[in-house]
Design goal:
The chain is an alpha/beta fold. It is 26% helix and 28% strand. The protein has three domains: 4-44 and 54-114 and 243-312, FAD/NAD(P)-binding domain; 117-240, FAD/NAD(P)-binding domain, CATH 3.50.50.60; 332-445, 3-Layer(bba) Sandwich (FAD/NAD(P)-binding domain). This is NADPH-dependent 2,4-dienoyl-CoA reductase, sulfur reductase.
Amino acid sequence: MSKIVVIVGGVAGGANVAAQLRRDDQESEIILFDKGEHIAFSTCGMPYYIGGVVDKREHLLVNADQFAEKYNVNVQTNTEVTFIDRGNKQITYRNKTGKQRKSYDKLVLSPGASAIKPDLKGTDDERVFTLHSIPDMDAIHNFIQTKKPRTCAIIGAGFVGLEMVENLKALGIDCTVVDRSEQVMKLVDQDMASIIEDHLKAKDVQLILNDQLDSFSNNSKTLHLNSGKILQADMTILAAGIRPNTKLARDSELEIGSTGAIKVNEYMQSSDPDIYALGDAVQTNNPLTGSPRHVALAGPAHRQAFVVAAHLNSDEIEYAGTLGSAIFKVFDMTVGSTGLNKAVLDHLKIGYIEITHETLSHAGYYPGAENICIKILFDEKTGRLYGAQVIGEEGVDKRLAVLATAMKAGLTVRGLPELELGYAPPYSSPKDPVNVIGYKAEKALE
């Protein structure tokens, strides 16, 4: 039976719900509202456009008109949904013509997240930026092209901060990274983060840890840190993380989870069963522990979109939770992580054993072998895998993929030596590093 499905927000979540739903449902009316100009774009690709690795801006974008025609979706860009009347199942939206209302049978919320911007004087200066949207990307790109900055301060050493370091350095811009934590990239443990830090220093990146931005002066060219240190920078990128966009959900009195994101069930339904939510704005559970997590990654958002579209078609496919498998590149190094790290396990008071294995990415006698470091965290009694981290210049992605798959399949560390992984000298060794760390973990359990 045909219905009216209203989707608020595009990108990996909302746009994929619309596309998947239309593949299976040719009758329903589907309307997608997005307050921006673009219904879908590659957030992860933006640093590489700024750095010139991706040469054409349009390669990151999905054309709204082509999307609307292909999937028979009513796409309304530059249109903001401002209110949900749950009792009457109507939304209020605003565009250049003013305020209007639209009824719905089912509502899907994909409002995404926003870059955290500290409430400091100077953050609105033309030389201070965040990077979470296409307008953000365009502003940084245009500033670099027109102002020719020579130095940049990056506040935050997470995904965006470290990816921007590489791309700015490629443009000849000297970078200083400031982070309030004791380490870069809190996704990994401190011993693994130290490998990243050494690599950054080798690339002439200045690191300032255990410190944070206090204020700007001199037209935001001067940065004052809490420690009293003073930095001079032609531009500043605020990369201190993101915050889920939950205002619409809160105003509608939908339940918000303990992480500050929208709480959903296994079918991605909010506390109102006619309203779904997904993507960067939702809280899901970790499949290993059942503990709530807010994970903003494209892969989980795509899977959640499939679950939502299926449920809208009365097909009950459950979302199994988010491991949080992530990978990124910083200069010549690749860093991957999946599951839980030590900080999270300690917070949850879960007992674990940690094992680290350093080796070569493939057979040492074959040219091009690079160092690779693998770390796993597992239950001290059962050997169940809780988390894995991999760092190196080659072969990181495939080891991370194997370990993430092993975790999803419920393997213990005893299963790692039994994995039959492809071997030839250019690719691995007869005993892959994943096999070897499994042997080491078995011995630790004994």
